[in-house]
Specification:
The protein is an alpha/beta fold. It has helices at residues 37-49, 94-103, 116-123, 140-146, and strands at residues 6-16, 21-31, 60-62, 74-77, 83-89, 106-111, 133-137, 153-161, 164-168, 173-176, 179-182. It has a 6-stranded mixed β-sheet, sandwiched between helices. A 5-stranded mixed β-sheet has the order 2-1-8-9-10, covered by helices on one side. α2 links the parallel β5 and β6 (106-111). The model has no long low-confidence stretch (mean pLDDT 95).
């Protein structure tokens, strides 16, 4: 018998002062049995950090990357089903990222493992043609601390200023400082 997803719900209050994006985001997360708290919370953070300023063409949504190999962790599709933003989490191979760069207007990758520098050294030269790809590294000690926020029902505040994200659950705050490894500003 196959294992089923565990359902999590998050209410995110976003105040991104760098991009002037302010939103209340409600999201239901179907967590794959093999997904860790850390990876799930990185997906939630990526959702907040990638939330579109203009939602007239839809919003960023959690996709089925661990269930469906042709889907990313998150994506923003417009009402014509065109992929505006493809978001990956972790350390995918170069072929997956190049395929995504060909399918979407914009691609973001959020790498968070402590082995990211070694992985990036081996893959960076293979991605130079992907002009629409932005790669971010999240410090693993910060994402591990973020994993402690994983609850079946979450109320999170995400504030972004000067490239730094502050994530709070109302009791504890964690500073997350993404480092851009590649991509346009």
């Amino acid at each position: 018998m196959a294992l089923k997803a565990t359902i999590y719900k998050a209410q995110i209050n976003l105040a991104d002062m760098d991009r002037h994006v302010y939103a209340d985001i409600g999201v239901t997360i179907a967590r794959h049995p093999s997904e860790t708290d850390e990876r799930m919370m990185v997906r939630v953070l990526a959702l907040a950090l990638g939330w579109p300023a203009d939602t007239n063409e839809g919003t960023l949504e959690l996709a089925k990357d661990m269930w469906e190999p042709d889907e990313p962790a998150l994506w923003h599709k417009n009402y014509s089903d065109e992929i505006l933003h493809w978001v990956e989490v972790g350390q995918p191979d170069d072929k997956r990222l190049m395929k995504a760069a060909g399918r979407a207007r914009r691609v973001s990758l959020w790498a968070f493992q402590s082995s990211t520098p070694i992985w990036w050294d081996g893959i960076a030269n293979k991605l130079t043609r992907a002009q629409n790809l932005t790669v971010w590294q999240l410090p693993s000690e910060q994402t591990q601390a973020l994993a402690a926020f994983a609850q079946r029902s979450m109320q999170l505040q995400v504030s972004v200023q000067d490239g730094t994200a502050w994530v709070s659950d109302g009791t504890t705050s964690i500073e997350v400082v993404p480092q851009r490894l590649m991509g346009p500003d």
